């Protein structure tokens, strides 16, 4: 019987002639309904909608449609668990629970959302969700940073309670940094979210400022690095509520009771739970090993793709090639820059010479004026000098001030040009010279051997990861395809009657999916059926056991790699610095040309003004000289006429000598 449905994200019609597909769709919609009811309810309960999705993931094939893939269902489960843990976190904060407990609950929220983010980053998930994948990922990342900030806020409060004031500062600072990241990611979120972020910023910001001030002025404790403190381990306090599709309390009366005996349905459900137990046990071991492996690899900071980046030194980076290509079609770049700066220097020198000449003329005129005043000290004051000189002096001072300011800029411009000129010549030259100018590492044969050994072990780590994922996928597919209904229908009903085995599990037990364990005869049937998984379990156990030896070998290889790593890091830093310097020189060229042109325009204008001022200065100085000459002649005429005497000394000088003494004699000489 065809069962048509529509995929939730793509809108595509999907039809399967399989009643299990219909049941899977109903379970999916049940989980969606629970999530909607949870969103509408007050946040006072940690019950969540993950149960339906978990049952769907563990008991049904993932090949029916893409919205029932393992990644999508894992995304849904972790989103539901994360929101349920949020409710519990809010309740614990309102109940004023201990800071350390609140921090652990908040850290677990972060862990759930990190798992959801990993599912969102999966390529299949991204292609399926389309645009909403980016929105969901941004929101989940915002929540990760926000609840990490809440966790560190309460770790800081715990440090405060323990009077560890240095730790308090670093926890509050970390909370503030993470909250700032959350605020960046919260753009476009509703006003209620923005208001919550602002409130949290007031709390954390106030805590940090107060803690830092107290530590700086009172306690003076050393502030440790955050990575030296013990990480906050999450406390998972929520769980997926069990869903049993064969429970009449959930589904109502079995409408197909006459087709397949209910006992067979119940026995099949019990077997499904046995398979789910097996899967949970295996997954618990895998996840524990994966967590250790992830933490170990994070601490080592070894990326197999960049552990040796020797290949990059054999090529000129694209950004530098682009600059070289741009300069190759402009061969006159350096010449134009040098010429422009030479022209600027020439105009600068001309202006300086003109202003110096004006200043010399003014100083000479002032000297002559002082000398005349000294000579005429006993004579009544003379009329003032021509007004043109004062204006010239004022304008000269203004131009000298402009010139002095521009001179500093001109000097800086020349310094910048000299700094970039060599790099521009290099970029405009042959590519071989550019490549030769870039640093390259020099490794010995032993160093190369160390590198090869490390790469080989990293490849082993990746191989171990890939094999583990493959075995897990095989196990899941094998469990999903394992259907023993046919065997159960032919089994005696008395052997399948539920309740003849062990007593029911206590309330709240996550494994309590059925009223009782299977009876002994049915249990033997299940054990026989479950033996088909033994070989796969052996392979998984071997894979997990090999991890310890692989990580030990990686640790030893990393110790030997330390010196090589340091040398490569130093060369890479020099390489990046050199590339950035060359790129900066190219990008500075246009700016240098622009500023050079502006300098030429400024000095050309100033040169014209200085030339005109020089002409005015010369004319004013000549007028001042003529004024002094007139004054001198006027003073000479005021002297009394000389008495007739012997014509030995010159008549004028003798008269002046008799009339005015030494001063008059000096006037005559002048």
From TrEMBL:
<feature type="coiled-coil region">
    <location>
        <begin position="454"/>
        <end position="481"/>
    </location>
</feature>
<feature type="coiled-coil region">
    <location>
        <begin position="348"/>
        <end position="378"/>
    </location>
</feature>
<dbReference type="InterPro" id="IPR038499">
    <property type="entry name" value="BRO1_sf"/>
</dbReference>
<dbReference type="Pfam" id="PF03097">
    <property type="entry name" value="BRO1"/>
</dbReference>
<dbReference type="GO" id="GO:0032456">
    <property type="term" value="P:endocytic recycling"/>
</dbReference>
<feature type="region of interest" description="Disordered">
    <location>
        <begin position="625"/>
        <end position="670"/>
    </location>
</feature>
<dbReference type="InterPro" id="IPR016103">
    <property type="entry name" value="ProQ/FinO"/>
</dbReference>
<dbReference type="Pfam" id="PF13949">
    <property type="entry name" value="ALIX_LYPXL_bnd"/>
</dbReference>
<protein>
    <submittedName>
        <fullName>PTN23 phosphatase</fullName>
    </submittedName>
</protein>
<feature type="compositionally biased region" description="Basic and acidic residues">
    <location>
        <begin position="625"/>
        <end position="638"/>
    </location>
</feature>
<keyword id="KW-0175">Coiled coil</keyword>
<feature type="domain" description="BRO1">
    <location>
        <begin position="1"/>
        <end position="293"/>
    </location>
</feature>
<keyword id="KW-0963">Cytoplasm</keyword>
<feature type="compositionally biased region" description="Pro residues">
    <location>
        <begin position="639"/>
        <end position="650"/>
    </location>
</feature>
<dbReference type="GO" id="GO:0045022">
    <property type="term" value="P:early endosome to late endosome transport"/>
</dbReference>
<keyword id="KW-0967">Endosome</keyword>
<dbReference type="InterPro" id="IPR025304">
    <property type="entry name" value="ALIX_V_dom"/>
</dbReference>
<dbReference type="GO" id="GO:0005768">
    <property type="term" value="C:endosome"/>
</dbReference>
<dbReference type="GO" id="GO:0043328">
    <property type="term" value="P:protein transport to vacuole involved in ubiquitin-dependent protein catabolic process via the multivesicular body sorting pathway"/>
</dbReference>
<dbReference type="InterPro" id="IPR004328">
    <property type="entry name" value="BRO1_dom"/>
</dbReference>
